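Quarterly update from the structural biology core.
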Amino acid sequence: MRRLLETKWLAQHMGDPGLVVIDASPSQEYLTAHIKNAVSASFDSEVYLSRGVNTSYGGGIDLFTDPDSPLPFKDGPPEYVGEIIRSLGINKDSTAVIYDNGASFHATRVFWTLSFHGLEKVYILDGGLEKWEMEGLPLTQQFPDVKKGNFVPSIPDQSIVVDTDYVLKNLGNPDVVLVDSNLSSWYYGDFLAYSRRGHLPNAINVPYPEYFGDDKAWKPENELREMFQILGVSPDKEIIAYCGGNPAASSLYFTLRYVLGYPKVRFYLEALIGWLSDPRDLPVHTYANEHILRDAEWVRWFAGERIQYLVSDSKVRTVDVRSREKYKAGHIPHALNIPVEEMVYGSGIGLRDWETVLGSKGIAVDDEIVIYDDGQNIFSSIFFWLMKYFGHKKVSILNGGLSAWSEKEFNVTRGDTIIAEPKHKFDIAIGPSSYTISLKSQMRLLNPAEGDASRNVPRIWLISSSTGSIHLDLSHDSTQVHVPYEFYLEKNGRIKSAGEIFAIQDSAGLSKFSDIVCYSESLKEATFSYLILQLMGYPRTRVFAPQIRIQNQLAKGIRSHGANTKQ
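Predicted structure, tokenized:
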């Protein structure tokens, strides 16, 4: 059921019996001006200043928060909340219309408390006070006389609230999507909001300001629906909404359930604060896809020597993409050599040949491939993108490459990794495999004028070269953004922190809701940008790569963008 009301409706029904208008903004804003007869869900003028300090948060947090809770933003027990609701003049049959300044979470946070505790007729004023004022509707500073109501809380559906254990249990569930509504600067750790930077593992970031248009009202339903779908937040999934404490997530919860009508939306009220306070010391991530970056310790265990004696197959393959000469001079033990630069340029090899190469190296489609080069991962990124293009699901990078491995003084070897059928359970030989490519043609662009009919989204050309030069005839509706690939690297060749990368991308105006094409006249520069975008969780990214030739030798029906003999 849609729960948004237009300003015109409220202006015409101000005198209706049973109507209660609630101002959800912080106390100081309510005292400055508010809609006639609106009651405040924040501290009154005598309380909001504590020894001269403004302590009003708004969103009902001032009044509803449990004074005995060790965590902030948590509503008190039903009897406590019920007393507050009655003090606002609300009866069991009242119609409550809530507003804030628009494009915020204060109104939705009050909406959450009222609806969760059983008030049936609760609505939000779309666009809030700012839209009301822009339309020339009157404001006042007078306080209404409030007659105490008779509302008694009764929670109709406790199941919409989930706890930390529920979130933990479903972190890897493909039918459950965890959505973080915090600002992206919080999500990526650029801003330290609480005791640790970042977000819950596997969470998708859809910041609450993205739900609103320039007029402070919610964006049109079709635009919102497409925005969420692009990021993988679809109505066929169960959605768990959370934020830092729970105020911002109320905006997400309301948008999905009451604007878009998503059927399965739950609220993790304990939020990031509860997660960080858990005595189990639960992990937080900063990159959107933390698993793409592996460190030397991780590789040493999951693909190193000791694991070979403990399990028959760890299902992790380390791939050294440097030249054959460099590989023979010293490499990570059990690493497989695929000299990527030699293989993707020139006349190119066929897809069938690639299947043979990968299979003969003992790589299976369900293995994780951890790629490394000398240090900067600039050549590793070519193979990373290539394997994604081939449809491989588990691909990661050793951050800092062989340099990071050597800094740990871990062992290197010069002999070839043995590829042979294992003779016993803990044979250290890697068995050959059979590999089948499932080409993902959407990850590669061959024609700069090519569009994507699946979604009407803007295109951004991300130019990765140092000079920013581009020699292409681009369409007029394309935007060019220049971010040299070196900007993402520390001086030691490591990839920068998620917070630093976010600041770079935010400053450049890169949007997750765009179709981003990575381009440079050097393939390694373009694919490095692709790697970074994947790491940061950009869903619609591809590489403009006409300069490599991969002969199409696969079964009929696999064609990329109308090409006849080349992929």
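The radius of gyration is 28 Å.
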